[in-house]
């Protein structure tokens, strides 16, 4: 659980990443709540395609299963238009993502969400609109 955090001018806010290599591991039951973003490049981001320097893992997808990740009361601003980024592996799509009372804006225009192989639910006001599959 990450609770009551402030991120100011950072590259990433609430981030989960898994290496783009085979694995039978999992990430489950993570809760992020009461987070404030101030000029953060990637306020909410999960990627299963992390490959530093594109060495030893290009074109591979992570097999780490990510599920039951909840974001509750996340607010603030981003320096980039994609403020919610869920980029999951087609071999281990994500399920059970919860977005509850999210209010994120972009300093340089409209904010948006990006989802690839991600499913979950929303509750309360979620801005920008969610792209999760239900």
UniProtKB/TrEMBL annotation:
One GO-annotated biological process of the protein: carbohydrate metabolic process
Family according to the record: Belongs to the glycosyl hydrolase 28 family.
Compartments it resides in: Secreted, Cell wall
Keywords in alphabetical order: Cell wall, Cell wall biogenesis/degradation, Glycosidase, Hydrolase, Secreted
Any Pfam family hit: Glyco_hydro_28
Domain of life the protein comes from: Eukaryota
InterPro entries: Glyco_hydro_28, Pectin_lyas_fold, Pectin_lyase_fold/virulence
Record-annotated membrane-spanning stretches: none
Protein name from the UniProt record: Uncharacterized protein
Any one GO molecular-function label of the UniProt entry: polygalacturonase activity
Signal peptide limits: none
Organism of this sequence: Acorus gramineus (Dwarf sweet flag)
Keyword Transport included in the entry's annotation: no
Database matches in SUPFAM superfamilies: Pectin lyase-like (SSF51126)
